[in-house]
Design a protein that fits this description.
Layout: E1 8-19, E2 22-34, E3 39-43, H1 50-57, E4 65-70, E5 73-74, E6 82-85, H2 97-107, H3 114-123, H4 139-151, E7 157-161, H5 169-186, E8 189-193, H6 197-203, E9 206-210, E10 217-222, H7 237-251, H8 256-263
Parallel strand pairs: 3-8, 3-9, 6-7, 7-8
Antiparallel strand pairs: 1-2, 1-4, 4-5, 9-10
Helix pairs in contact: 2-4, 6-7
Family: Belongs to the ABC transporter superfamily.
Domain ABC transporter: 8-237
GO molecular function: ATP binding; ATP hydrolysis activity
Length: 264
Amino acid sequence: MTQDRKALRVQGATKAYETGSGQVHALQDVDLTVEQGEFISVVGPSGCGKTTLLWSIAGLHQLSSGEISLGPDKIRKPHHAIGMMFQLANLLPWRTIQQNIEFPFEIRRKTPDRKKIAALLERVGLGGFGAKMPKELSGGMQQRASIVRALASDPEVLLMDEPFGALDAFTRDEMNLLMEEIWEETRKTIMLITHSIQEAVFLSNKVYVMSARPGRMHRVFEVPFERPRNLKLMETKAFFDLVNEIKAEIQHQPSSASAAVAAE
Ligand SMILES: Nc1ncnc2c1ncn2[C@@H]1O[C@H](COP(=O)(O)OP(=O)(O)OP(=O)(O)O)[C@@H](O)[C@H]1O
């Protein structure tokens, strides 16, 4: 590995929210390194701090202590090389798909790369849909548009917060396959948060399991399956066994409520 490759590093990330009824310890001393070009997922019991961790990496939340960096840059606010996708496509309803994709460029006062956007729209199966309004597209198509919006500025890191959780199972499988292909083509550094262990195993090189609140990195599973992967992989025994092993690891975590009582 060469020196200039940009790893995403989280060191000692600790986050306590101040609430009316006291502090909520969401993260405790989380360490994580995602090498450039890796695709990793983070899973864990509900409320263990996955979203808090991802939003902190996006520069949208301040940590109470600890540090996040991308290569030499410390992340304390949104960084131009870090893109994000959310559970809902978050397209502005009064703008066309093309205008939505160009919106982040407007905010940064940059000229959009229309050739790249056209190629990306084509790549995700939305060629010719740029002039449509979001309501004219299905949920899956809207998420395809949000993939284009996230990739149009060519980020080095893509953060995905349960991006396919609102889609039906069939569309979700299609989107998983599309993300696998896009990762193969672009080799972006990708960090996915998901409640679907199948999705995590299908897409990732590594799956990190967090412990219940306050969230810590509990265990990492290497995913051994060759790439490129296709949906048939999900029907194999080896896939099923790894998914079940990870599920069992999560189920052995105490519930968020009892962990919180123990920690606070
Ligand atoms: N803005 C906030 N103010 C106070 N507490 C918060 C805030 N955001 C999150 N929390 C609390 O911090 C803990 C971690 O929340 P977070 O959303 O990061 O977990 P999560 O693992 O993503 O949850 P889920 O899997 O259910 O989406 C939870 O107990 C949550 O209630």
